[in-house]
């Protein structure tokens, strides 16, 4: 029996190694990644919405005046939004101005408790831009008081 065991042990060892080899060969093989055949397409450029919308009707006792202008220097155009006061200026909590540029840029500034002459300044373009001004009052109401195109007027017509 001793010699029989000596023969069985190597046979079992060879059998176990064969099982390990077979088990290693049966693991799933990932197929080669197929090449991406999609053709990149240009993303459409979304143009900014430069169409002004109607403004809100502010109660007469809360009306204020806002002046919007653009300089004519083509190297560094800017837009200014100036709080010019009015009968309702004592009711104003804040003035928020948003400039939507023709190049797609959008910029917003807020002036808390603006007084006459308070100015918000924005980068502009050498094309038409849009300015929207909202005023918030002490009663919690916010009104859009200005929404207009701010054209660039070249000094050389």
Q: In CATH terms, what is the architecture of the domain at 60-150?
A: Sandwich
Number of strands: 7
Would you tell me the structural class of the helices and strands?
A: alpha+beta
Order of helices and strands: HEEEEEEE
For the biggest β-sheet, the strand order reads 4-3-6-7
Instruction: Give the terminus-to-terminus CA distance.
Output: 116 Å
Largest sheet: 4 strands, antiparallel
| Residue share in β-strands | 25-35%
CATH superfamily of the domain at 60-150: Immunoglobulins
Return Rg in Å: 37 Å
CATH class of the domain at 60-150: Mainly Beta
Helical stretch tally? 1
Catalogue the unreliable spans.
none
Oligomeric state: single chain
Estimate percent helicity. 10-25%
The gross shape turns out to be elongated
The CATH topology assignment of the domain at 60-150 is Immunoglobulin-like
- Average pLDDT, rounded to a whole number, is 83
